[in-house]
Each structure stands twice: as structure tokens, then as C-alpha cells.
Input
Amino acid sequence: MTTEQPQPGPHNAITDVPGVLVGQVERTDAPYLTGTTVIHVPTTAVAGVDVRGGAPGTRETDLLDPVNSNAGVNAIVLTGGSAFGLDAATGVMAALEERGQGVRVGAGEKDVVPIVPTAVIFDLGRGGGFQARPTADWGRQALETATDGPVAQGNHGAGAGAHVGGLKGGVGSASVRLADGTTVGALVIVNAAGSAVDAQGHLSAVRYGLPGEFPVLRTPTDPPPNLPGRIPGMNTVIAVVATDASLDKAATKRMAMIAHDGLARAIDPIHTLVDGDSIFALSAGKAPNRLTVTDPTTFLQLETIFAAGARTLARAIAHAVLSAETVETPVGRTLNYRDAYPSAFTND
Output
């Protein structure tokens, strides 16, 4: 039995999972305040998804059901633009086709159908124009910037126009290295109807941080900020959890399901009728004998990975909120957590 403290990977991001790349594009000049985030797996990954929000916007999720024949995905797209934003996946597919990445359907080098599941948040109009939203070209641009390096957080990618409980939301990421060497990572777009802050002004997810990961935050003495009213439907948290452990489709689906615990720990309420909360899970491991939920000898290993996914996702939410920056737009000002609760960061 080890008492060694878990540690994040080198970037404390989903890109610490070998084989997982992230690229992002955003526009924050009026009337735009939106963006696209692409998680690219050049060698493919087994994938699962669990959708629990009452107003989801998704594409290609049925393929990920364990009873269906799809063996893996080439990329996951998380994007703004509501249902219009689903078009970003078309640009990703076109770029992957040019690279010959996808399900092979013919003898030619580029005779492939890339598998690119997608989920959207509702951020229409937040920069001043409801028609200012991601297009297919945004997906292509995001894919072309994808690397295994640090992930830009806060007002980047699909987090550019995100809100959470009236405060500025954004994109966040985190990772952890488990005792057996397995890496688990998460990336999230925090855009919820619920709040990431409790009644005392505490950022709920910070308590799940690894040693030294987050600043010491005090109980705020500021009066609660006067937050603007929220428009029903302008919400949704979307995320990806990933591991280099080799999981089958059923185990990957279970990883996505349990990752929703991370949302519930960090945001309240969650899974409302005006959210489309959706989580994808990726297994980038290539071992031929994949871990399965029907083998009792793998239960402990699987449960450790699943629990790490939920906790890492909660930490990613904290990073998203702490990294977000206050924005001034034609439709109003959205405060970040630091500007709303400055006393949380001081000794005063």
C-alpha cells in the first residue's frame, strides 16, 4: 500500500495523456464572443459518452454506444454556437480526410470517413451578434493548431463566451498520474445555469485540488455581486475525460457516466432542463487485452480510473473559473470570480 500523494502530469492538462492533442480557436472582438476546442487523437481512441442535461446539442453520439460497431474516434469537437456550431465538426472531418485519418471505406489513401463526435454550448449573442458563431473553418483551424503541449484556459476556445451562474466561465483542464503509472486527464467547457460558487462565496471545486494546485482562497467578505439575470437555455457544460489505460467501449462509457460526479461536486444545480451537460470519455491505450466491466479482476483498477476521472474533471472546472477573465461586451459586463470576490484572494 502506498501513501504517495498523486501528482499532475507535466502540463496538468488532458494533453498529458499520451496520444491526446488539443487545438483551440476563438474570437472575442464584437460581435463575436465564442470559439471551438478540438481534442485530436491521431491514432484513434475508444470512446464513450453520457448525456444528462435536458437540452443537449450533439453529433455522432449514437456511434459510441457499446452495442454499436464503431471501434474508435479520431477527434472530439467542443464548440460554441449552439446547434449552428455543430458545423465546426465538418471542418475537422475535411481536414482529417485530407490526412487519411478515419474509418477506411476504400482502397485510396484518402478513402476514409473520420469519426468526430461533437457537443455544443449555447453562447449565441454574448458578443453582441447572434449570427457571430463558429463555422466549419473554425474546426479546421482548431485542428491545425492541436498539440500535446499546455492547454490555454479561461477565455479560450469554446470557453470564450461561457458563463457559469452569472460569472464568467471558460475552458479548463487538469491531469493526474496514478500510483500504477496510469494518466487520467480532463478538459471542460464550463457554461452552466448553476453556480460554481457556494452560498459563502467559496469556489466549490477547489477542495478537490492536489497539494499546492490552487491558491489558498479565503471566505469572501464581499457582498454577493449583483449578477445579471440569466436567459433560460443559454447554458451547458461539455467535457472530455481521457486515459492511457486500455478500456473497452463499455468501460469507456462507464468512465463518462461516473465523470458526471465531478460536475455535481463543482456546480449546483447541474443537469437542469436548460443545460445540455454531456461528457465524452476516451481510452487512448493500445493494449490488446482491454479492461472490461464484465471482468471482476479488473474492478479495482477500473474504479480507481473512474474515480480519478471525476475528481480530475472537478479540478478542471476550478481551473476554468480561476483562469476566466472579466469581459466587457455590447450586451453587458460579465465578472470573473476574482473581480466578483476579491477578498477571497487577500489577507484583508
Q: What stands out?
A: The two ends are 43 Å apart (CA to CA). The chain has a mean pLDDT of 94.
